[in-house]
Design a protein that fits this description.
Two copies of one chain form a homodimer.
Chain A: H1 12-32, H2 38-49, E1 53-54, H3 55-61, H4 66-78, E2 82-86, E3 94-98, H5 100-122, H6 128-139
Antiparallel strand pairs in A: 1-3, 2-3
Helix pairs in contact in A: 1-5, 2-5
Chain B binds a DNA duplex (30 and 30 nucleotides) through helix 4.
Amino acid sequence: MSEQTSSFETHISYAVAAAHRSVNQRMTAQLKKHGIQIEAWRVMECLDAGERLTMGALASKALINPPTLSKLVDRMVSDGLVHRQISQSDQREINLLLTHLGRIRMLDIRKDVEEQDGALNGLLETEDGALLLKLLSKITV
Amino acid sequence: MSEQTSSFETHISYAVAAAHRSVNQRMTAQLKKHGIQIEAWRVMECLDAGERLTMGALASKALINPPTLSKLVDRMVSDGLVHRQISQSDQREINLLLTHLGRIRMLDIRKDVEEQDGALNGLLETEDGALLLKLLSKITV
DNA sequence: TGAATTTAGTTGACTTGGAAAGCAAATTCA
DNA sequence: TGAATTTGCTTTCCAAGTCAACTAAATTCA
C-alpha cells in the first residue's frame, strides 16, 4: 500500500485544516470592523441568494449545525439583521428573511469579502482557483 | 474586474469551509471510538514527529491557539497521554513529551486515520491528492 | 547592575458550540 | 378518526474556545 511513512502534514485532513484556519483568520480580521462573525455573513449571503429558506436548509447551506444556527439567528434577530416568519404551509417551519438593514449591511460587508477572496485568488495561478474549487468539492460529502 | 456576480458558494473561503466541515465530520466519527478529539490527535502526531516541542511551536504546528492548547494539554496529562517538562535552557519553556501510553494510543489511532485519509484520497484521481495539497499550501499563510 | 521591556505560557471571566432531550406540528396507518 | 411515528426547530446542560489579564523568566540597555 503506502510506500513510506509520510509525515502527517501531508494528510489531506491536515492540509484542509491548516488552510481553513488561515483563511478564517484573514476573514475574521476583515469582518471584525463590521462587528460580525463569519457564520453570520454566510447566513446573510444564503438568505440573499436563496428564497424563503427554512432553518434546516439554511443550516446545511451555511455549514452550521441546527442548534448553533438557532442561537446565531437569535442574536441576528436582536441585531435587527433578519427576522423569523412562520411558514404558512407548515407551521413547524421557519422562513428566515433579511431585514432592510440586514441587506444594507450585507452589501457593505460583501465588498470586503470579495476583496479578501480576490487576494486569496491572487495567491494562485490563473486557473488554479477554479481547479482548487473542483478538487475541494470532490472531497466534500 | 469581476465579469459577473458569482454565487457565494464559489468563494474559496466557502469551499474551504465546506471541505473542512465535511472532512472533520468523517474524522470525528472515526476518532470517536478512541474517545479522542481531532486536536488531541494532531498534538500526538506533532510530538511523535518533532522532537522537544515547546508549547508555542506545538500550538502553531497543531493549528491550535495557545490558551486552547494549554487546556487541551491539561486534559491529556490527566489522561496520561503526555507530560510536561520544563526546558533547562529556558525555564519559561515547556517541552511536551508523549508518554509510553500516549505512543501506544497514537499508533493505534494512526491506523484509523491513515485509512480515513486513504478513503479521502480515493475520492480524487491519482495525482490530484498531491495537487490539492499543493494548492492548499499556497493559500495557507 | 538593575529597571524596563519582551517573551512563554497559563488563568479567569465570558461566550460559543454541541449532543441529547424536549416540544409541537404534520403525517402515517390501524 | 385518533394513537403512534416522524419531522422541524429550540432549549438545556455541559464541554470547549476566546480575549485579555497575569506570572515569571529572559533579555535589553542606560
